[in-house]
Amino acid sequence: DIISEHVRENSVPSTITAHDDTKLKVDTTFRTSRTCHIQSGELTCLDHVNKRICDCMGIEPERSEPIQGQYYTAGQEFKAHTDFFAPNTEEYATHAGSMGQRTWTFMIYLNDVPKDSGGETEFVHVGLSFQPKRGRAITWNNLLPDGSPNEATKHWAHQVKHGEKIIVTKWFRQY
């Protein structure tokens, strides 16, 4: 499919933001996937997906980040992490900016990954796990009703054992 091919061809090694960068910089296996930053207008079909996601969430596109693709091949993963920026940290000051905290995450699997091939997304504090299935979307609220970080959203993109996993993710912001 066009989006999957675009993500494969344009991805670069993934990076991380964290309030405890020193710990994570030591662990070069924390995030081993590849990332594709996709700008509006770069892929017409993805612009339609972007609009549908915003409509589904009932949130204005202006309160969101561009869609990002993630590409995992055999042996790659993203260990347990959250999508919000840790409040009162350099990470928050650097990444929250004028848009504020990340509120919602909307993720779509672009391909099937058989159960015996890994790649599942596990929410480690609540015991939920999702096996990648083409077209399946999952969404979660990164904040509690009082606006504080929702630690229950800590999730782990488990290692792909065979084949590949391709997803697109959209994050929404406070402002």
Task: Give the topology.
Layout: H1 2-10, E1 12-13, H2 21-26, E2 34-37, H3 44-57, E3 68-73, E4 78-81, H4 90-95, E5 102-109, E6 121-123, E7 128-130, E8 137-141, E9 155-157, E10 164-173
Antiparallel strand pairs: 1-2, 2-3, 3-10, 4-9, 5-8, 5-10, 6-7, 6-9
What does this protein look like?
- The chain has four helices and ten strands.
- It has helices spanning 2-10, 21-26, 44-57, 90-95; strands spanning 12-13, 34-37, 68-73, 78-81, 102-109, 121-123, 128-130, 137-141, 155-157, 164-173.
- A six-stranded antiparallel sheet has the order 1-2-3-10-5-8, with helices on one face. Strands 4-9-6-7 form a four-stranded antiparallel sheet, with no helix packed on it.
- The mean pLDDT is 93.
